[in-house]
Amino acid sequence: MRAARRPWLALLLLACGFLSTATVRAEACRIAYDMGSSGIRAGASSGQRAPAAEIDFLAPLTAGRNLDETLDQTIAALNGLPEKGAFPAECRRVAGGFSAWRLALQRGVNELIPALRRIHARSDVSLLVIPQKQEGIYGYVGAQELLGERLKTSHVLDIGGGSLQIAGAHSSYGATLGQKVWQRHLCQLFKKSGTPCVLQPMRPEQLLAARTLLQDKLSGLRSALPEPVSMTAISRPVTRGILPALLRSTGSGIDKSGTDTSGFSLAQLSGVIEGLALLSPADTSELTGIAPKFVPYLLSDMLLVEGVLQATGSDFLAVAEIDLTNLPGLLLDERAFAWGQRYDCYLERLQSMGLDAYDSDPATCH
Fold first, then answer.
1. Confidence at residue 89, expressed as pLDDT on a 0 to 100 scale
2. Which of 129, 175, 264, 353 is 20 to 30 A distant from 274 in Cα terms?
3. Which residues pair with 174 in a beta bridge?
4. Residue in 276, 324, 265 with CA at minimum distance from that of residue 301
5. How many Å apart are CA 150 and CA 275, to the nearest integer?
């Protein structure tokens, strides 16, 4: 039993900063694919390049369809990205499917498994549906590798298109509540439509309704993160949207390099929300300097971050933009690569166990 746990000890040591990058690169040749809601990134144990392909996996799912219409594009990317990255030709390959793939599994395992078999047959890539908790481990490993000593908080806040992730070394929380998903919830609430909509101006009673809805959506957060939480936001909805909008609307300056590591308080954020809610999109763009095409998401992003701060009992959010992927953690994940070698068994367990298939032991497969 101890031997089976040693790879996970290595991963935890990396998360705590004790395993060097050189050690990681000395591992056997591996290629990993980070498959989120809006595309695929590829990485290899032999190098730093991470070529990417944009694929909107979330769109067909939110429209009530499955992922079949994306499969040809997905297979082409899985086959083509290693060449773009100049990766070694003969490497073990594993893909991690995250928010969109968890949603597809939730919608119907009987539709998803044939799609996974087709992907494997045409690309030789074993695509695993990764649980939210494991994604949290990947996220903190990646943030620590990129930020080093600049990461002074217990957790990182990553807001994607489909999912929200609060990742720490010892505890994590995730929800299907990313930028696009949360905005659709508000559009459904106020416009009775799941498509992107204009939320401003928002009346006080609507603002209250939005906050109440978010409290319900985040109801499990405190129990998942019972310890004191401090957070660093690392994704663009905050670094390129909320932070510069707050600084400009309050008359402050901003570091144009895109590496601002300051932050803002919950009180500052709530105060700006109250003012922006009453404005039109055009006035919001003029006041904040946010481009008109991004303005429809600004208020909903602010409400989302406000709700997260309140739910965690945090009064300040640090900000440091990094290009975070799940690749460093996935490349180290011995369990994932073991499942890649026993993929038929994994798919059988996915059929019977759902998302828990990943956490079962590959060594018990016949």
1. 81
2. 175
3. 165
4. 276
5. 32
